[in-house]
Fold:
Amino acid sequence: MSHSLDAYLILSALLFGVGTFGFLGRRNAIAMLMSIELMLNAVNLAAVAFGAFTPELQAHAALIALLVMAVAAAEATVGLAIVIAIYRNRRTPLVDEYSSMRE
Amino acid sequence: MPTGVLADLALPPFVPFLNWAWDDLLFLLLAGIMLAAAIFVVVGRNIVRSGVAMMLCFAALAGIYVLAGAVIVAAAQVLIYIGAISILVLFAIMLTQSKSGPLSLVFHRQAWAGLLAAIGVVVLLVISVVNTEWPLAVADRLWSVTDEVALLLFSDGLYVFALQVIAVLLTAAVVGGVFIAKREDSADPGEPAPTTLERVRPPVDAAPVETL
Structure:
């Protein structure tokens, strides 16, 4: 099972689906950001799995995964800063109460 | 003899009583932990526990990376995701947790539509994965060599531009994050315009404006 590409890709699809549901369904802005992290991890898993089964792509896959991690770190920084900035005005982390960005 | 990660250990060739290869057992175990933790992240009521479960999910995923032979990615996963991003998320959770509002309603009222969309995405992905003939879909996985990654990154010229872009992006993200999250005194209504003496005072969050 761990020697077949399909298992890794299906696991990646499941993780992506869980992240999709979290992003669409949660009310808390930080939970939505966490769901985005889950989706980025699913993409990383797919890239690493393709690299593991294709010898000429292996180093490329590792590099792409590392670049995605760096972008994820930047996204988390800016996203959480925005959530904190909005929380300072609105006093709530729930996105459905952000009907407008200023009072 | 077992192959892969456990090749150096003196283990029986298959898992006793189950007749599986050891790699498969590890893969199933890590995948189960990862999926369970991910689902707990998404459906958990207490968001602090969701944050901790996210760390568990990332750790299990690092184990899967090792199983797939990408050791450098696993190390970076532990450093960046478990070490940095999770801590950042936990800090943000603790900064934005309001005790006043009841957080019992975790999901939107339209969350069923999101669930349908997620199930649709998973079904589409699984169908396309299963129905595609991948070249080399079953093989002995190779162990990625870290110096190959470094050579590809720095000497080949293919990824140098991406490296520079990532450097600029990280710098911009840090500066932008500080700028956005910085407390703007004049933006706070109800407070008089701060003098310079007041601005020196450390920003204490102890005075929430209750009239909002």
